[in-house]
Structure formats: C-alpha cells, structure tokens
Design goal:
CATH topology of chain C: Rossmann fold
Helix content of chain C: 40-55%
Radius of gyration of chain B: 19 Å
Number of helices of chain C: 5
Number of helices of chain B: 2
Radius of gyration of chain C: 13 Å
Shape of chain C: globular
Strand content of chain B: under 5%
Largest sheet of chain B: none
Number of domains of chain C: 1
Shape of chain B: elongated
Oligomer: heterotrimer
Number of domains of chain B: 1
Largest sheet of chain C: 5 strands, parallel
Chains: A mainly alpha (about 900), B mainly alpha (about 90), C alpha/beta (about 120)
Structural class of chain C: alpha/beta
Largest interface: A-B, 49 and 42 residues
Structural class of chain B: mainly alpha
Chain lengths: ~900, ~90, ~120
C-alpha cells in the first residue's frame, strides 16, 4: 500500500472519530444521550486496557514467552468477576464524592491532603511516560512496516517525523474534546464514545486477522491445535512465581492505571453498568486473546527468521497479499494506541492541573479564590498539561530510540502505578490508615520501584552504573538493584514486584499504626470505609461564617455563572428562601464542596472553601459523634435529622414570610405618610412660587425662572400620580396588555436611547452582544421597554464606578429569555436586596432625580403581568438585575 | 433509611437468596485464582511446559468464569437500593 | 444684625423659594442640603434661627434637633421644623422644636413665624 494512501486513510479515520465525538458532545449538550450512556459503551470504553502493547505486543509476547501473555488478561478478569469486593465500592465512592482522578481519591481519603495528590500524580506521570512512548513507537513501527512494503520506491517515512506528527495530532484531538468544559464530575461523553468505536475497530481487526490465520492459512481448528503442539516448545516454559506475580500485577494495574481509573470510575454514569461490565469486559478480553497463539505460531512458521514478532498481526496478512486485511489490522493498532494516549493524557492532565497547577496558582495569588476567573486557568492548565504529557512521551521515545521489546516497558509501567495499591486498598477498607502511612508507603514503594525496575530498564551504565548492578549501591551487595537482600534467584520483574509492594505495604502499615490522624482524615476515613452504610457521610463543616455572596462569586469562577446560580437558587429553595443566596449551613457547604471537587479536586475545593469560611472545619463534638456512632444512635439521629431538616425548611419559610409581613405592614403604614410627603413636597414649591408670582413686581427673567419651577414641579406631581395609578392597575391585574411580536434588540435600543436623558449625565460604556439579542418576543413591548428603561436609568443614576460600564447579557433557555443588566458599581448591600422592589424603597436620597422610589416596584408588577420576573442577581461585581420573560406570552397568562 | 431496631434472626426467602448470591459472587474470583494457577501444580517440574491442552484448558476456565459472573450480575444489582448496607 | 437664618432643606426648589422670601425681608440666609455637616456649621456660624426640614439625607431632622438640644451651647437656639407629616409633629415637639410649619405653607405664614422667632 502506498504510503500517502495510508496517511490519507489514517486522516479519514481520525476525521470519522472527530465526527463521532462531536456529534455525541452535541447530543450530550442537549441532554439526549440515551443509549450512548449504556453498559455497552461503558464496557467498550474499558477496553483502553488493551493498548497497542496488547494489540501488537501480545503476539510477540506469545512468540517469545508462550502462554505468559494470558496473565495480562487473567488479572483484570479476576478483578472484574470479583467486582462485588472492590470495584463496586470504588465506583460508589467515586460517584458519591465526585472523584476526578486516582490522585484525587487518595488525597481526598487521607484528609484532602494535596501533598498526597502531588505524590500520586508524580508517580502516575513517571510511570505513564514510557507507556505513552510505547504507543507512539508502535504507531511508528506499523507505519514503517507499510512503507517498506511499498514497491514504487517512495522514500520511507522518517520515524522521528511520524512520531512528532502522531504526538501533535493526538494532543490536538485530546485538547479539543478533553477540555471542552469543566463539567461537574469531569465526564467526557464525546471521547468515551469515540473510544468505544475504537474498541470495536480493534476487536474486529484482531478477530479478522485471527480468523484469516486459522481458517485461511492453517486450514481449521484441529490443524491449528496440531501446529501449536508441534511449534517450538522450548520457549514455552513458565516460572510459577512469575506467572502468579503477573496475574497479580495486571489485576492491580487494571485498578490503579490512571486511564483505567478514568473510564472505570470517573466516567461511570450508572453503577448498574458495572454489573454488566463485570462479565462483558472479561469477555472482550477473551475475544481479544483468542487468536493470539495461532497468529504467533503461524507467524513463526511462515515469516522469515528475524522478523519482528511484535508486528506479525500486520506483516502476516501483508506477506500473504491481503492488503485490505492488513489495512484493517493497521487501523486496529492505530486505534489501540490513540485511545490509550487520549484517555491517559486526559487523566494525567486532570491530576496535574488539580493537584499541582491550581494549588500553586492559589498559593502564589491568594486573592485568586475570589478574584480571577479560575475556569480559564484550570482549562489552560489542563491543555498545557496534555501537551506536556505528550511531549514527555515523545521525548522518552526520542531518547530511548525505540527499543525492541514492547512488553517489558508495559510491565514496568504497571508496576509503577501498582505502588498506589496499598494506600488505595488500605484507604477503602481500613479506617486506621493515615495520611503519613499512605505517604510513607507511596514514597518507599516508588523509590524501590525506581531503583529495582525503572532505572535498570535503561540498561547497565545508562542511569545506574555497571558497578551498582554487580556490587550494589555504595558497594553494599545486599543493595544490588536486581537482588535486594540477596534474593538473586528471582526473576527481575518478580523481584521488583515483590520487594516494592512488600516494603510499600510495610511502610504504609507502620506509618498508619504509629501516627495519629487529623480530624478531617478521620471523618473522611469513616466516610470512605463505610460508604455503603447510612447514606451521606458525616458533615464536614461546622456552621460556617462565609458570606453567601462571596461563596457565590467563588462558585461562579469555577462552575460558571449558570451552574452556580442554579445550584445556589435550588439550595436557597430547599432552605425555604427566595432568591439566589442560601444560608451557609453545613449541609450547603458540603454540597457546594462536592460540586467544586468535581471540577478542581477535593483538596483544592476544600482549601478554597476553608479560605472563605475562615476557620477549622470540624469540631471535637463532630469527632465524638463519629467515634461513638452506633446503630441506634444512627437511626435515631437520622430520623431526627430528617425531621429537623423539614422543620428548618418550614421555619425558614415561615420566618421569611413573617419578616416580609412585618415589613409590609410597616411599609403599609409608611406608604400613606410617604405619599403625603411625596405629594406635599412639589406642592410646597408650587404654592410658594405662585404666591411670589402673584405679588407681582418681579424682573421678567425671575418670572420666567419661577414659572419654570412651577411647571417642573407640576410635572413631577403628575408623574407621581401616574406612577401610583400605574402601580395600582398592575397590582390588581386589570392591566390591558398589548401583545405583539417585537425584536428584543430593538427594544433594548429604544430603552438605551430613552434612558440617555437620565440625570446625572455621564458617559457610559455599553457592552452588548448583538447576535444574542436577535430574538423575537411575543409580549407587550411598551411595558417591557418601560422595565428596561427603569433598570438602565437606575444603573445610570446609582452606578458609582469611575468608568461606568453597563453590560447587557441575553440568553435563551427552554422557552424563556433572560436579560441581565449589570453595571460595575458597588452594587446593592445584601440587607437591602430584598427591599428594593418594595414601594418607596429608594435606598439613599443622595441622587434624588425626581423619582419617588416606585420604579422597581412597577418593574416587578409589570414582569409579573408579562408572565416573567425581575430579580436582583448577587455576586456579579456590581448592581445586576435579571429580567426573565417567556418567549411567547399567551393571552391567558395576561 | 436507617436499620431496623433489632434485625430479625431469620430473613425472608428472597433476601436470603440474595445474600447467598453475594457470597457466591465474592467466592468467584477466589475460585478463579485457584483454577488459573492449577496447571502450575499438576506438573511437578521446576520448569513447566504449557501446550495446546493448556491453551484449551485456560480458555474453557476463562469462559466458565465469565458465564458465572454473567449469571450472578443481574441478581446482584436487583434490590441493591433497598438493602444496601454491608451486613449479614 | 440679628438676622442670620440657617436653612436645612434637601429640596432645591423649596430652598430657592425660602431664600427669595427671607433675603427680600433682609435676613441673611445660608443653606445646607444634607444633615451631616449641620452641627459643625451651627457651631461655627452661630445662626439666630435654624429652619430644619424633617426628612433629610444623612442625619435626619429629628436627630439633628436632639443633638442640638443635648449640647448646652445650642440648647436655647430657636429651631423651626418643616414637616410634611402631621404625626411627626409630636416627635419633634418632644425633641424640643420651638415651632412647626407644615408643608405646603403660605409665604405669609412662614415670614410671620420667622419674624416672631427672631424678634423683629
């Protein structure tokens, strides 16, 4: 196959994946995922366990070491069919605590310690780098195979160049679909579906090659069995220790590999999917390995001696003249490599940004928790991290120069991430596990792994000198990297596996036994270990002193404006309050922290909220409650809590209603005297000046001046009476609405022009997004414009910024349109926010521009009549009002 | 919600079945490990040779484990909500 | 020269009318539109009469009156309250206002009161 045609097919294939990911993202956006969130897609996405190492390397592995390659599948099979033990708990915890990565899980379990998060992140990055290099290498090798098979003398592609292009392409794809949004709980529907498609491609490809080999080349099942027995059996020997060790290692890896954790836990949409995957995923693995042995045997038989067995899947069909089949196999291998790299780099990028970049950013700029838009920082960090991870992978590939045996690197990577296991298992099942213990275990395990497995993999003399290998570190022979404590008889991998995990677990247990956990650690430990008992975990916040408005501002920086407002509004409603600002109750702080950790990880979310709440989060009483928990107390308190929550909600609603009534009755009293005052004031001027004028003998210019004052005051009187009349008509609901179809943009234009005459005259910068305003509303446009004029004039009157800016943001959602009118002044103080829509509720008289404080009351009545609402929007950095109108107002609603 | 004040000594038939099914599910990987290590035990040599007989054996065991897991899975998810806590 | 009147009133038009009326009668007029600086101004200017509006931005008329009556220096200073609200009269009386004028007032009425209070 010509090389350029191959590149074209690859590109076509990638474009196809792009389209899949794009369409799914769009459906997800519209909330119509349907079958795309099925157990089938979940199971297929798990298949990123099978990387290019499996796709190409398994055959090579089988050719070199016989059935040993099966151990790599047996481990995951055992873990999945035993899902009731571990995976169920893992997935439950992942969902309950919105875990974003394995580093987040460990850090969250051990008291939201970011140090632990950093350690796990670093281990994962170090272990994954060679693995990513391996994927690049396999793509490059398979390109090489095709290019050398081209007959027309076209120059073979430079492997370096291919590797660069593949790395850049993958980075681009991942950034495009992996960092589109900071979704709560970090789910990437588009990518997961694309991965599922790739899973099908690689399975079909391997099965097709296998079927071709068995029935096309060998001549049937019985023949192939005969050939297996006749093949060179000398290589097919197995060491029991290594066999057992590899099953264990792969079982561990399937849980701890960052990419597996990502698809298994983070992207899990429904716990029920796990039950299905418990047998479907092993079945997939079985299908993937079904034909490995036949392909290896026939490959060894037919291919020239010295041919790379890692490439048999590709070279065998090629040499038999099956170009189409080879193409399919190539795409299968391409899929394996790309899907692994994409998910791995997303998982690593999430860890890097959540545990390293963001904490660093917050540390360097402590004000950032309230100030800057963290979303863009997080997204940028994540994008850069993806590029960085791929650059590391490419760098490793470049430096290692593509060494021959693929399997060795894969196993070393497995062993690296396996170091997380003791902390993970201990954290999930042992309440006594502590942060110090976890840290000690991870560091010891990582060091031993690096010394016995990772560094020696570069070969003697590369990183570790020759003498270290033969005589041990510092000449101490019991410190030889492949014979610690004199255990020479062990195979190097088993040796490294044994010592790293034994020392890791020992350090972990000792550290846990000898240290005392902090309060947050103990609470988190209890919550994680007992995740299946009694619903929500213990309350992690004492009653906070945070200002709800500051919390809202922070939440908006991370979750985005809409999501944050919705969250706060529903929390306020649960507490029986109106508006956007719930009380900072412990329950609310907990749920807010949960939402934030879904985006930036538990440790960062906790730190950010602590900063606002400004004090230690758990009290001694809380701890006592945890320590003395018993079934009765739990049950009793659960009932009490439920009742108390109900009572609190009712009480909240009542209190609010009562406050409102009291205030209303005070205002009712005040209303009459207010009216009297508002009427008497202009009448005083009118009376005084008309008496002066009646006396005569004034210079003409004075007559004109005083006449004008009388005229103005009379107009003011009229306006006041108009407003009062308007208000009473609106309040009684007897207003006649004149429904027409009108352009929102024109209405806003009109309002801005009309409001320009407002005193004091100042130049305002107006920010609008005209395309978003191209909406036709069926409503009473005169009335709606009246509301706009009122809000805009208010901003003009009261905005106290040096460079006043007025922003108008329009959004359309579910048949309703929201128009936000936001200025950059100092806003309205919190205790006044609930009053401003009441009659005569002018806040300060500093700028009495002739209004009587009826404007917002009228606005509210108009909006009620138009089937919409107007509300004060807190946390926007200035005074902000949100007008909500139905897109089409029906007559009946009027 | 919370647990009953004093748990009944005898469970209803369906609940009892469900608990035993969970036991079986927990047992399955243990059985799997034994079966997958078995070939190492039936040849006493230090160096074990694996041939086509073993290939067939492994795939049959593998398939059987998958079959059992598939048989258990629906029963395990059913009633998960009502009876969640980890108890026996 | 007993004719210095300090007017504290936030409505510019009412203040304008008063200024016209009182200066025409030969009084010296100063005017403040906010309650905050009033006390300092009274201490420095020592007016013969204070005309105080009831509803003011900043410190309210009633608070100013209370502060004046609490200070021995200004305890006897004649104060005339302008009220729009009938029932506030009682509060003002208790706080120690000497006279009240309800808005809207007639020019003759207010001139008569001012003359009576300044003894002219």
């Amino acid at each position: 196959m010509p090389f350029n045609l191959l590149v074209a097919s690859c590109l076509l294939y990638v474009i196809f994946l792009f389209a899949v990911a794009f369409l799914v993202e769009r459906r997800a956006h519209l909330g119509r995922l349907g079958w795309l969130r099925s157990p089938l897609v979940y199971t297929l996405s798990l298949s990123i366990y099978c990387t290019a190492w499996t796709f190409y390397g398994a055959v090579g592995y089988a050719a070199r070491s016989g059935l040993e390659f099966l151990t790599i599948y047996f481990g995951p099979t055992l873990v999945f069919i035993g899902w009731w033990w571990l995976l169920r708990k893992l997935v439950r915890i992942g969902r309950e605590y919105r875990v974003t990565s394995i580093a987040d899980l460990i850090s969250s379990r051990f008291g939201k310690s970011n140090t632990l998060g950093v350690i796990v992140t670093l281990i994962c990055v170090v272990a994954a780098t060679p693995y990513i290099a391996l994927q690049l290498q396999s793509v490059v090798l398979s390109f090489g195979v095709f290019a050398s098979a081209t007959p027309d003398g076209q120059a073979p592609p430079d492997p370096e160049q291919t590797a660069i292009w593949v790395a850049v392409g993958l980075a681009l794809f991942t950034i495009l679909f992996g960092t589109r949004n900071l979704d709560a709980k970090e789910q990437h529907h588009g990518i997961v579906t694309a991965i599922a498609v790739e899973a099908v491609v690689k399975l079909v490809a391997l099965l097709a090659v296998g079927a071709f080999v068995v029935w096309g080349l060998a001549g049937g099942v019985s023949e192939i069995i005969a050939k297996i027995d006749a093949a060179d059996l000398a290589a097919w020997q197995v060491q029991p220790g290594r066999w057992t060790g590899l099953i264990f290692l792969s079982a561990v890896a399937v849980i701890t590999l960052p990419r597996m954790f990502q698809v298994l836990v983070v992207e899990n949409a429904d716990e029920g999917h796990l039950a299905r995957a418990s047998w479907a995923f092993p079945l997939y693995l079985l299908a993937m390995s079904l034909f490995i042995v036949p392909i290896a045997v026939i490959g060894l038989e037919r291919m020239p001696a010295g041919a790379n067995p890692d490439m048999f899947v590709l070279t065998l069909p090629l040499s038999e003249g099956q170009g189409g089949l080879a193409m399919l196999a190539f795409l299968g291998g391409f899929s394996s490599a790309t899907s692994m790299v994409i998910v791995e780099s997303i998982a690593l990028a999430t860890m890097i940004s959540n545990h390293i970049v963001i904490p660093l950013w917050l540390h360097l700029r402590p004000s950032a928790a309230r100030g800057d838009d963290l979303r863009s920082v997080v997204l940028t960090a994540r994008r850069l991290a993806i590029a960085g991870v791929l650059a590391l992978g490419y760098g490793y590939y470049h430096v290692s120069g593509g060494s021959a045996a693929l399997a060795a690197i894969g196993l070393i990577a497995f062993l690296g991430v396996a170091q997380i296991l003791p902390a993970l298992i201990g954290g999930l099942f042992w309440r006594g596990a502590t942060r110090i213990g976890a840290m000690a275990g991870l560091l010891v395990g990582f060091a031993v792994w690096a010394y016995t497995s990772f560094l020696p993999s570069f070969g003697p003399g590369a990183v570790l000198s020759e003498s270290v290998f033969t005589q041990g570190l510092f000449g101490l022979s019991w410190l030889r990297p492949q014979a610690l404590f004199g255990t020479e008889a062990m195979d190097p991998l088993t040796h490294a596996l044994f010592w790293s995990l034994v020392l890791n677990a020992t350090a972990f247990c000792l550290g846990s036994l000898l240290t005392f956990p902090g309060p947050v650690e103990r609470l988190q430990g209890a919550a994680f270990v007992n995740v299946f008992d009694g619903g929500a975990g213990p309350q992690r916040w004492a009653r906070g002193q945070a200002e709800p408005e500051a919390l809202l501002t922070m939440a908006q920086r991370i979750l985005g404006e809409d999501a944050a407002l919705t969250l706060f509004q529903s929390a306020a409603r649960d507490q029986g309050k109106e508006g956007f600002l719930p009380d900072p109750t412990p329950a609310f702080l907990d749920s807010l922290e949960g939402r934030l950790s879904g985006s930036v990880g538990a440790a960062t979310a906790h730190a950010m909220i602590s900063q606002l709440v400004g004090r230690a989060t758990v009290s001694v009483e809380d701890l006592m409650a945890v320590a003395s928990e018993s079934a009765q107390i739990l049950e009793y308190s659960a009932q009490l809590e439920a009742r108390e929550a109900e009572l609190t909600r009712t009480a909240g609603a009542l209190r609010e209603a009562n406050e409102k009534l009291t205030q209303l009755s005070i205002q009712k009293d005040a209303f009459l005297s207010q009216i009297s005052h508002e009427l008497r004031t202009p009448m005083t001027s009118i009376r005084a000046f008309s008496e002066i004028l009646t006396e005569g003998d004034l210079p003409p210019d004075m007559v004109v001046k005083y006449g004008k004052i009388i005229h103005d005051e009379a107009k003011r009187l009229t306006r006041l009476l108009d407003d009062l009349l308007d208000l009473s008509v609106l309040e009684n609901g007897t207003v006649q609405l004149n429904l027409t179809l009108a352009s929102l943009q024109q209405m806003l234009d009109h309002a801005l022009t009309a409001a320009r005459q407002t005193r004091p005259e100042r130049s305002f910068t107006i920010q609008r997004d005209l395309p978003s305003e191209a909406i036709y509303l069926k409503t009473d446009s005169d009335r709606l414009v009246q509301v706009f004029i009122n809000l805009i004039s208010n901003a003009r009157k009261y905005c106290d910024a040096a460079d006043p800016v007025l922003r108008i943001a329009v959004r359309q959602r579910a048949g309703r349109v929201t128009i936000d009118i936001i200025d950059n002044g100092s806003g309205i103080p919190k205790d006044s926010q609930s009053l401003i829509f009441e009659k005569f509720a002018r806040l300060t008289d500093a700028n009495r521009a002739g209004g009587a404080g009826l404007g917002l009351a009228i606005c509210r009545e108009i909006m009620t009549n138009l089937g919409g609402s107007v509300a004060y929007l807190p946390g926007q950095g200035g005074a902000a009002f949100r007008v909500t109108v139905p897109l089409r107002l029906e007559k009946a609603a009027a | 919600m919370a647990r009953p004040k004093s748990p009944p000594v005898f469970l209803g038939r369906t609940l009892y079945r469900r608990r035993r099914l969970r036991d079986a599910a927990r047992l399955l990987p243990v059985v799997g490990v034994l079966l997958l290590l078995l070939p190492l035990l039936w040849v006493s040599d230090v160096e074990v040779r694996l041939g086509s007989g073993e290939v067939v054996y492994f795939f049959v065991v593998w398939l059987a484990l998958i079959g059992l897991a598939a048989a258990f899975a629906p029963g395990l998810t059913r009633g998960d909500k009502a009876d969640d806590q980890e108890e026996d | 020269m007993s004719g210095h009147v300090l007017l504290i009133e936030d409505e510019p038009n009412i203040a304008e009318a008063m200024r016209f009326l009182l200066t025409r009668e030969g009084f010296r007029m100063s005017h403040l539109s906010e309650g905050d600086e009033v006390l300092a101004r009274i201490r420095s200017d020592r007016p013969d009469l204070v005309i105080l509006d009831h509803m003011l931005p900043g410190m309210s008329g009633l608070e100013i009156l209370q502060a004046l009556r609490a200070d021995p220096d200004t305890r006897t200073l004649p104060v005339m309250m302008l009220t729009a609200r009938g029932r506030d009269r009682e509060l003002a009386e208790r706080a120690g206002a000497d006279r009240f004028i309800s808005k809207p007032f007639s020019n003759a009425e207010i001139l008569a009161e001012v003359r009576a209070m300044t003894g002219r």
